[in-house]
Amino acid sequence: MIRILFLLVVVLGVGALAYKLYQALGGRKIDIGLGKYKACPRCQGLGYWEGTRSREKCEWCKGSGKLPRDFIEP
């Protein structure tokens, strides 16, 4: 029983470390739907979008990359 619990803790720890490494190397955060905010669908959570000449600040999220969960797209 103790071996199973130890193995479970090790597997979960390795998974958490792999996810943190993925984020540190520029990977996108996974939205699991538990927070007050969600990623802006217009700019994909970046806060900006690539315009024809330069980066343009997203008007929906005002550059934050986050929107309230109850936000309805116009």
Set out the fold topology.
Elements lengths: L1 H23 L12 E3 L8 E3 L4 E3 L8 E3 L6
How would you briefly describe this protein structure?
With 74 residues, the protein is an alpha+beta fold.
Which percent band covers the strand fraction? 15-25%
Order of helices and strands: HEEEE
The outline comes out as elongated
Sheet with the most strands: spatial strand order = 1-4
The profile of the biggest β sheet is: 2 strands, antiparallel
Tell me the helix content: 25-40%
Low-confidence stretches: none
Rg of Cα set: 18 Å
Q: Structural class per helix/strand content? A: alpha+beta
Number of strands: 4
Number of helices: 1
Beginning-to-end CA distance, first to last residue = 54 Å
Mean pLDDT: 84
Report on the structure:
With 74 residues, this protein is of the alpha+beta class. 31% of the residues lie in helices and 16% in strands. The strands form 2 sheets. The protein has a two-stranded antiparallel sheet. A two-stranded antiparallel sheet has the order 2-3. It is elongated, with a radius of gyration of 18 Å. The mean pLDDT is 84.
